[in-house]
Amino acid sequence: MNELKSFLQYDKTFSCVQCGYCLPACPTYKVLEKESASPRGRIALVKAAAEGKIDVLDHLAEPIDLCLGCRACETVCPTEVKYGAILEGAKHTIRLESKPTSAVKGLRRFVFEGLFPHPGRMKAVTGLIWLYQKSGLRKAAFSLGITDKLPFHMGEFERALPEVPSPLSFMRKKTAVQPQGKPKAKIAFFAGCVMDSLFYETNQKTIELLAAAGCEVIIPTTQTCCGALHAHAGELTQAKELAKRNIAAFEETGADWYINNAGGCGAILVEYDHLLADEPEWAERAQQFAAKSRDINQILSELGPLPFRKEIPHRLTYQDSCHLRNVQKVASQPRQLLRSIPGAHYIELPGADGCCGSAGIYSLVQYDTSMQVLDDKMKSVATTNAAFVVTSNPGCLLQMRMGIRRAGLENSMKAVHIVDLLHEACDL
């Protein structure tokens, strides 16, 4: 029982006084309207499971799986409950208690061990997607209705995919870039796994923007997946191993800052110190790594102004990445950057701080709830009449692309990563 309490972060549950301030901030409580879908409800269930009053799998797993992990509850909590730690502890416990089939085990092993930690394999998958998009297979799949028959609503997500880069593009990848003039800072860039495959061009534009802002940029070749998807899926052991590999890779660069351009990745990078707090040989190194980890919006705002050369004469609005806003506490900087673009008219999105429903693979495994959250979000997006909905995270970007299509706004609105828009305005 003591081990179960430790895994479930039982000691942290006592910080929750069940006041209910978290309820209006919670997107799943908003759409599902039940206590077990709220932060305080889930914490109560975690406490009950730790005390042996309810079963982990029968009573706790479903409410925990329904949580988006946006951590908006932490921003309004008067007692500063560490909900993120409680959530990951619960997911880890559920993972340990569950008895998946051999097929599920194999799939998890392939995804979490065989795919995401290996950049080359991620790029190989992207190459297959490129071939599918360019060869006529995609057009044939649509015309025959094959995509609509895919499991987990994959057909709908397929429509939201960007045009991915060709395999030849990856061969032009640089490992270091020098700015014109004396460098203002030495930057080590965290490329990520999804960003450096599906959104490879955005990564290259990020590097060019950093150089244009006066940074010397290094891209560590031994870096790997951040481990966020692993941690969110209860694979904490693997998440820790990935963290150690990244810490070692970035320490070698001697950089002033470690910069990322994905809100979800950045959230775990700045919490490596919490992830490795119980490992004495890594704890201090993890603290130093977390202290140097920053989002692209932060560094561009501090080193600016950017060398804009082109007007973007359109209405812009911004959807916060939950992990960028709620964990990294970055909210004003992207808005300042968007307002600084020549010719642009920035419109604040009502409820921009609310989750869009993406949350990693949540939109796949909890499709119905995710779409309820997304459709509610799009009602607000539509009121802005913006030409561009700007995001700072790949999952949010795909989700907003899907939301625009679901809302019938494809002809008037486009979802873009903030880096792509800033890069265009700088005409690099």
UniProtKB/TrEMBL annotation:
Cofactor mode of binding and number, as noted: Binds 2 [4Fe-4S] clusters.
EC identifiers of the protein: 1.1.99.14
Name the UniProt record assigns to this protein: Glycolate oxidase iron-sulfur subunit
Biological source species: Effusibacillus consociatus
Catalysis performed (reactions): glycolate + A = glyoxylate + AH2; (R)-lactate + A = pyruvate + AH2
Entry function: Component of a complex that catalyzes the oxidation of glycolate to glyoxylate.
Domain 4Fe-4S ferredoxin-type per the UniProt entry, residue ranges: 6-37, 57-81
Pfam annotation, one family: CCG
Cofactor(s) annotated in UniProt: [4Fe-4S] cluster
Top-level taxonomic group: Bacteria
EC class name: oxidoreductase
Record keywords, A-Z: 4Fe-4S, Electron transport, Iron, Iron-sulfur, Metal-binding, Repeat, Transport
SUPFAM superfamilies the UniProt entry points to: alpha-helical ferredoxin
Matches recorded under InterPro entries: 4Fe4S_Fe-S-bd, 4Fe4S_Fe_S_CS, Cys_rich_dom, Glc_ox_4Fe-4S, Helical_ferredxn
